[in-house]
Please model this.
Amino acid sequence: MRHTLLAGVGGALLSPPALQFASAAGDFIRGPAVPDQPLQRLSPRVALVFAPDGFPTPENLGMMANIVFVITSVGVVVLDTGASVQIGEMALRRLRTLTDRPVVAVVNSHYHGDHFLGNDAFVQAAGPALPIYAHPAARELIQGVAGSSWRSMMERWTQGASLGTRVVAPNREAQHGLVLRFGDTTLRFHHHGRAHTEADLCVEVVEDRVVYVGDVAMNGRIANMDDGSYLGTLKTFDALEAAVPGALWVPGHGQPSKQLLVEQRELFAGIYGQCAAAVKAGEDEAQARRRVLAYPPVAAHAARTQGWENNIGKYISLAYLEAEKENF
Model:
């Protein structure tokens, strides 16, 4: 029997030792259900459960990443599953308002937990044989340190709201160029080297000219670049636009847009370009930061980007380090 844990009831929040105990006792303690989230139909085959927030909190119960449904004639392919079993269960409820077709496959775009921890819900619903695809490096990391560490971090960030989530790792590998056919629908996989991570998969729904880009590009959010590359991201943007011109680009965070890659290229090229110019001029990181923040194409993104003030400094630092390495 599972009991629901409500974080913050009576003003009390779980302490880190209590969270560790609760995590170990996951069969008995479970976070609360996640309220239904907005559902958007993007194309004849593609729908989106939209995450309004960009960061996990106790209030949003970890609902920070979009979940995408590709509805084919033989069943539904789910592109990323959310940050907990509770979020995955919510997504399944939303899916059932669109179709009663079975979930026939899952794709995890990379190894950050807000995109794979919901696998648990879909496997519980469809059975352990459910195909779950990921890049080989992402599959290995989710099976190992990324799986356990992301589960623990999500429990901490949400004050226990994601408790009860099991790490269910991908069981299939997908590389660049893989094509899968599901009845009337063709999915083509894209990977162009390190971008957001070294293991990103972008999924093209060929018939609808819709491409789910995961966290390679975001809309109104700043991508976590700790595992990524600015130059690699720009290269990936170029490759995607050449492969699928005129596509609707669907991000893991933020609203879909046909202009998404254009706008994100402006931001990423602005941050990296100003840092590269600072490195070539012999300027330190503080001077590079001033360059970046004063550069109009970058400054234009500040007001419309969640978490800008708290995160832009870190991302300038990462760009400066990458520019130093390239200039060495």
Remarks:
- Residues 32-159+166-258 form a domain with the Metallo-beta-lactamase; Chain A fold (CATH 3.60.15.10).
